[in-house]
Amino acid sequence: MEEQKILTGKAQWLVFKRLLHYLVPHKKMVFLALGLLALTVLGDVLGPLIIKTFIDDYLTPGTFPQGPVIGLALGYLFIQVSNVIISYFQLLKFQEAALKIIQQLRIDVFTKVQNLGMRYFDKTPAGSMVSRVTNDTEAIKEMFVSVLIGFIQSAFLIVGVYIAMFFLNVQLALMTLVLLPLLFGIMYFYRKYSSVFYQDLRERLGQLNAKLSESIQGMGMIQAFGQEKRLQDEFNEINDKHWAAGRRNIKLDGLLLRPAIDIVYAIALIMLLSYFGVMSFSNTVEVGVIYAFVTYVDRFFEPIGQVMQRLSIFQQAIVAASRVFALLDEEDLAPRQENKLGTISSGKIEFRDVTFSYDGKTDVLKNISFTAEPGQTVALVGHTGSGKSSIINLLMRFYEFTEGDILIDGKSVKSYSSNELRSKMGLVLQDPFLFYGTIDSNIRLHNRSMTDQDVRLAAEFVQADRFIEQLPDAYSQAVTERGSTFSSGQRQLVAFARTMATDPKILVLDEATANIDTETEVAIQTSLEKMRRGRTTIAIAHRLSTIQDAELIIVLHHGEIVERGTHQQLLSKRGLYHKMYLLQNGIVE
Q: What is the pTM of this model?
């Protein structure tokens, strides 16, 4: 579980500035929207002045000259209609800019996820990452769509209203400035405490997503072992904490948002009416001025109230953005390649004194050294946790190593580009992963240079065509998420075809026949022999019967090579390999 970090005021400001940088590519659209916004604010300010002129100059004296009165009426109507039209285009431009920003932000986040190293995925729940890409970016979108637009509009309107108030009565306008410190104080306390509560709320939401993701992916095991009640209790516990965090937010909103602003608004009205009441004892007070001031005070507090209401969304967005930026700033990237000029030709592999640790404390590989000549098969055997998969992880560049070196064709594996490594190395895992799509797309993997004939030849090569052509739609048969509608053996055959379609120089097999039934395994052994022919093969094997013909068998124990040789050589040594062989074959000495 990720550690929660409370955002300070400075940290929130830095997050906000970083969000504003996403506006730069759309500055023309934003400036156009701001210009239109200024026009609507001008209309909001001029409206009460027209009404004030009508009341004081025509309604109070009781004179209604046709020309001036009609002119005022038409002017007021023109302003209102223009405001509606301009507001539409202003909001449209702001919304377009906001949606483009979120579109780019989601692309940035998804691209970052694709470039993260396996270490990050080892320590981060999948649901938490999904929450950042979906829920958190959606919260940021709300900030751009409603909050930022609302803040700018409110700022324009407040400035416009104050200019109009100073134009009408300087003394009264100065009196209303006294209320600003009180309003800023409310905003300060709300920002200070709401950031803590919203941080907790977003973390709880991430935990909910993580638990939901885990439950869906492991539903088979949950039902098989009767763990439904336990998972429900754990989900309910997280959900209760999410509810409690949400309730704290609501209580804070209910106290410091609309009610607090309404009290300040009431104080402003009392001050305004008291001032005019006192003034009426010694001077004549124009009704139009009273109307204009009351209207302006109302229009001043209306955006203030909107700002306070939107502060809730703003705080959620800042907290969400901090989580997204934390992902974008993650430095645990996939291993980098140093010089991208190397080309793999023959496929010779050499491990030289490689020592590796996942956590930086416990070595899972210790001084591993061996050579796989071009066209040879090197098998890795050993008990669980002996380091077999770690060797493959380093060879495939899933993890970075710092001690020793791994060479391919005499050059460090770090010196090849990612594309060169991936195109010349074929990997088949024990539990193959199929993508949503079709059989064809899973073999082709969207390689546009691969023809339909290439796909079919790859399937025939591993004898996957037998079951594929019996499907209703053959190679166009739909594949659901993770290929759940196919058997383990069928998924493995598709994975074999996918690997052979790229014609790799190096073949990496992680117990590739473990999930295939005996009949199917016998049928594809010939295919496996053809696959290995002319290719350097590194194979992890749990069943020793599948690798007896390997040119080199390496026996691992606690991260070290304890034996090496051919099948017969290792049996004659009567060591660990000999014991494993006897155990698997049920032979008791």
A: 0.66
